[in-house]
Amino acid sequence: MTDDRAPVLLYDGVCGICNRSVQSILRFDRHGTLRFAALESDFAQAVIERHPELRDIDSMVFVENPGRSDERIDVRSAAALRVLSYLGGPFRLLLAARIIPAGLRDWLYDRFAAVRYRWFGRYDTCPIPGPDVRARFLDA
């Protein structure tokens, strides 16, 4: 069972690399608490309503304290860094990327995002997670 206060990673549910990344996060998640929701989900739409600046978002979004008054969001490269920090262990070495200015990190993130479907494919619909992890997916 997951904690309603646990962080949530919003991701592009039809993106091939995004789905593979979620599968990797599940494999390396020592805490077993990070939850997931596709950007197309009702949960994500509720987050976007609370944060109108996300209206046209096409990026991963790390949501801390979801639905609470102290809800915090990180997008693009900051969200990726939050995931690395959450995973801990050897992934923390990649946090050295923080020395790169956020604007440059986000520019690189956006360049990669622009070709992600062409390089890694696209699903017609968001894949359904397996029964062993389904409870960690909101609106699954």
From TrEMBL:
Pfam families referenced in this protein's UniProt entry, alphabetically: DCC1-like
Gene Ontology molecular function: protein-disulfide reductase activity
Extent of the signal sequence: none
InterPro entries for this protein: DCC1-like (IPR007263), DCC_oxidoreductase (IPR052927)
Residues annotated as transmembrane: none
Highest taxon in the source lineage: Bacteria
Protein name: Thiol-disulfide oxidoreductase
